[in-house]
Write a structure and sequence with these properties.
Number of domains: 4
Number of strands: 22
Strand content: 15-25%
Strand order of the largest sheet: 3-4-9-6-8-7
Largest sheet: 6 strands, mixed, barrel
Structural class: alpha+beta
């Protein structure tokens, strides 16, 4: 009979009793019949059968034991005994459960984050066959970059491994029809994107190739959220007209609620537009050929591996580079001899890579250390508590209990703690995941939606099993040994001291690592300089036409009209538009033109920013040489640029930069510009040193998505409604959105890093509290158990110093060993941290010393407090009490 059948028989008592009686009656009647066939009288035959079968009650119980597993009852008895054991010291038991639940809860919450980021299948049809297609450089270097559209079209035509290959980009858009123009986040998708992802619209249809051709009617597809919010979930919305970016679009479809491409975008997409497949984007000779803004995804054929796709792309990319050398020579890296090529990676891998995945690794390591500390604490508790159980273990051994029986008892007791802690840990994980969401940036595609689901519960169960084994095996193994009790006790002390050292070492590594991250973040934020963002308000606009500008045929002319109207408002000190709030990390190629430049600095990378003439005034960036942009720096005039001191120093050391020329910008923005001014270096967050920075005039560039910066007059509140009316007086269709303080906008750039630092700092604080409370509780408990020994030593003349030294010596030695091991681990860990997170500050020796002293102080208090109490007790009274 299987164990499962025996287990289920626990709930069939009455039916089994009836079956047992019938079976016993059958055996009795069979024996009687056999006796009677041998010629024995019936009365004698029945008597012989009763003697043969023995006690009916014993037979029934034997059959019951055969059909119902006695293990279940024994386990239940062990669990009840464990409950009684823990009830003897409720506060210590509660502390251990709380400690263990914190470790399990943090682990479960962290796994929910990892599950959403790395393991949960992407919400697309057959996601394992989806790949991301990118550009890279042989030999590594800058990582990967979005591909060019002509590259993708050539690959799609030549490839035999792709079932489909398509692309999309994202941008701000605005819709009209409400109280004021509203902004939406839009995706321009090539017609093959939605069919490739297996999307069937809830209403209407998806895009066709005809929707992307010049001269076709403008089409739009709504997300489920936008359809419900702006159109009241109208089922007849298909065919209605919607004004997008000042142009009428026909709504051709609505997507289902369970679909989005938000995993691959900067924020949730609300409206989908067809990507214009016109020569200005698709031709190798077009001015936009070098614009790298699209996200390319492909679906590989069944049976084809990513490695096979990459090998084919390598061959195709070599041919493309050979066929279009003029395009690729514009890349500074190619001019240095680097060769570009096209690669394919699993889409899930592409989404999860980067600095965010490094953050997840750091958080996971921190949580693992917290869980190990919790397990160590629990093992310490069980090991210390087992001191009281030596007589019980001896009696069990004497009664015949083997090692397996004793190990089972201790494991079941640790399982009680683990299961209780797991239940509390799941509740804490739910709370912690809510905390994760509040700490993360408003939209972090990597983590998707995190929460406690079935995989998280399964992980929690696995953690509970792990903690049961880790916490229970040490005391189970030590106290299930037979032999001399003194040997077991000595081994017990060694194991206990080793656990103390391990706990101290782990928590020190975590504390020091968290301290390094927090100090790094504070240091990098402190070094931001070169600008003043206080009191500046930022708002985003996206140009929808050239309006009635008389200054130029670019959107810069329209923006300048906005600025002129805003500057005329009372209470406005200055206003400007810019493509980005502050200079980004150097990533745009440029080259120095003409004679007089350093031959070793002919081309490099710099940040490239489009600004209006008032930008430096708004942020109070000092002009060091030359002039700022003026109203006459418009399209059609001599292209001009302003550089920062660092670029001028590198390109023209010891010389004036005014009048020099540089070639900068990509695609239609590429131009040879004359330097007319030099400004101070702007050091932004996470920028350790000064980097080259180039500023171009918004009157000479055509950038539709801009940031409007306004500084009100001193002690004046920004007249926001008046600012909007001033803009609408020039262009009534212009949406103004994402209005917030400039300082908040800058802080958002570090939100993920600050969240990671805060979480790791929280885990480190938790580890520190867990370790010192556990250490204090265990050492205090063990010291208080030695009252009788203290009394005996005092009775034979031991001094207070001798007693305290005896008690504190081993604890101090092993704590010091843990401090030294933790310091060594911190040195190694800081090196790993610097390799994972660029810019991490150097390890501070003072931090290590302070943390080590803190642990030694905890041990001193844990030993001295109960020792002093015990010293005040009369030895005779203590001996009588024992």
């Amino acid at each position: 009979m299987s164990f499962i059948s025996r287990f289920l028989n626990q709930w069939r008592t009455r039916a089994l009793d009836h079956e047992f009686d019938e079976e016993l009656r059958f055996h009795f009647d069979t024996r009687v019949d056999a006796n009677m066939r041998r010629g024995i009288a019936r009365e004698d035959a029945e008597a012989e059968a009763r003697r043969h079968l023995g006690s009916v009650l014993r037979a029934r119980e034997g059959m019951r034991d055969a059909r119902i597993s006695g293990v279940v009852n024994a386990v239940a008895g062990d669990l009840r005994h464990g409950v009684r054991i823990f009830r003897r010291r409720p506060w210590l038991s509660a502390m251990v459960v709380a400690t263990l639940s914190l470790g399990i809860g943090a682990s479960a919450a962290m796994f929910s984050l990892l599950n959403a980021a790395l393991f949960r299948p992407l919400p697309f049809q057959d996601p394992t066959r989806l790949v991301a297609v990118s550009d890279a450089l042989r030999g590594g270097g800058r990582g990967v970059a979005p591909p060019m559209i002509p590259e993708l079209l050539d690959v799609r035509a030549a490839s035999t491994t792709f079932e489909a290959l398509s692309f999309f980009d994202t941008r701000d858009a605005q819709i009209n029809g409400g109280a004021e123009p509203a902004r939406v986040f839009a995706a321009r998708i090539e017609s093959a994107v939605l069919p490739m992802l297996g999307v069937r619209p809830a209403l209407g249809r998806v895009f066709t190739n005809a929707d992307a051709l010049a001269g076709s009617q403008f089409a739009a597809i709504l997300s489920d959220g936008l359809w419900r919010r702006n159109f009241g979930a109208d089922p007849l919305v298909v065919g209605r007209s919607l004004n997008v970016n000042g142009l009428p679009h026909v709504i051709v479809g609505v997507l289902p609620p369970d679909f989005s491409i938000d995993y691959m975008t900067a924020e949730p997409v609300e409206i989908y537009l067809p990507y214009p497949m016109i020569p200005v984007y698709t031709s190798w000779s077009a001015e936009f050929v070098f614009e790298r803004r699209v996200t390319a995804i492909g679906r590989i054929k069944r049976g084809v591996t990513v490695e096979q796709v990459s090998a084919e792309l390598d061959t195709i990319s070599r041919r493309i580079v050979t066929e279009h050398p003029n395009v690729y020579r514009r890349m500074p890296q190619v001019r240095e001899g680097r060769e570009p090529y096209i690669i394919a990676r699993a889409l899930r891998e592409s989404i999860a890579e980067g600095s965010q995945s490094s953050a997840l690794v750091l958080l996971s390591m921190a949580v693992v250390l917290v869980l190990l500390i919790a397990c160590t604490n629990t093992a310490q508790f069980l090991l210390a508590q087992s001191l009281e159980r030596r007589p019980e273990v001896a009696v069990r051994n004497a009664l015949g209990a083997g090692r397996g029986r004793l190990v089972r008892q201790f494991l079941l007791e640790s399982m009680l703690l683990a299961v209780t802690a797991s239940i509390l840990g799941v509740v804490q994980a739910i709370w912690l995941t809510q905390g994760f969401r509040s700490l993360m940036p408003p939209f972090t595609p990597l983590i998707g939606t995190i929460g406690v689901d079935l995989p998280v519960l399964a992980f929690t169960t696995a953690v509970a099993v792990f903690t049961t084994l880790v916490c229970g095996l040490v005391p189970a193994w030590r106290f299930s040994q037979t032999g001399l009790e003194t040997r077991a006790v000595a081994g017990h002390a060694r194991v206990r001291h080793v656990l103390i050292a391990v706990e101290v070492a782990i928590s020190m590594v975590l504390l020091i690592g968290a301290g390094l991250l927090l100090r790094t973040l504070q240091e990098l934020q402190r070094t931001q300089s070169g600008y003043e963002a206080a009191d500046v308000t930022a708002m985003r606009i996206r140009g929808i036409g050239v309006g009635s500008s008389a200054q130029s045929g670019t959107l810069g002319g329209v923006y300048q009209q906005y600025l002129d109207r805003i500057a005329a408002l009372p209470g406005i000190e200055s206003a400007a538009v810019t493509s980005v709030a502050l200079p980004n990390r150097a990533g745009s190629g440029f080259s120095v033109v003409g004679s007089g430049n350093s031959s070793s600095y002919s081309h490099d990378l710099a940040s490239f920013q489009i600004i209006s003439p008032g930008y430096f005034s708004v942020l109070r960036i000092p002009l060091k040489e030359g002039r700022s942009f003026v109203a006459s720096d418009i399209s059609g005039r001599l292209p001009v640029a302003i550089v920062n001191e660092e670029l001028a120093r590198r390109a023209w050391p010891g010389q004036s930069a005014i009048g020099r020329q540089i070639t900068a910008g990509e695609g239609p923005r590429a131009a040879t510009m004359t330097v007319v001014g030099v400004v101070g270096n702007v050091k932004t967050v996470f920028q350790a040193g000064d980097e080259p920075q180039i500023y171009a005039s918004s009157l000479q560039q055509n950038e539709p998505s801009m940031l409007l910066l306004i500084r009100p007059a001193a002690s004046t509140r920004l007249p926001l409604d008046a600012v909007k009316r001033a803009i609408w007086s020039v262009e009534p269709r212009q949406a103004v959105f994402s209005i917030r303080p400039m300082e908040e906008l800058i802080a958002e750039r570090t939100m993920l890093q600050r969240a990671v630092a805060a979480l790791i700092g929280g885990f480190a604080t938790l580890a520190f509290v867990m370790s010192i409370t556990g250490l204090y509780a265990i050492v205090t408990y063990l010291t208080s158990r030695r009252v009788r020994e203290i009394a005996l030593r005092r009775a034979i003349g031991a001094r207070t110093y001798d007693v305290v030294s005896l008690l504190a010596g081993p604890a101090f030695r092993w704590t010091m060993a843990g401090v030294l091991a933790g310091a060594a681990g911190a040195v190694l860990g800081s090196g790993l941290l610097r390799a994972t997170v660029p810019g991490v500050v150097a390890l501070n020796t003072i931090t290590v010393v302070v943390i080590g002293i803190a642990y030694l102080a905890v041990v001193a208090c844990a030993v001295c407090v109960p020792a002093v109490v015990a010293m005040r007790i009369d030895p005779a009274a203590a001996l009588r009490a024992e």
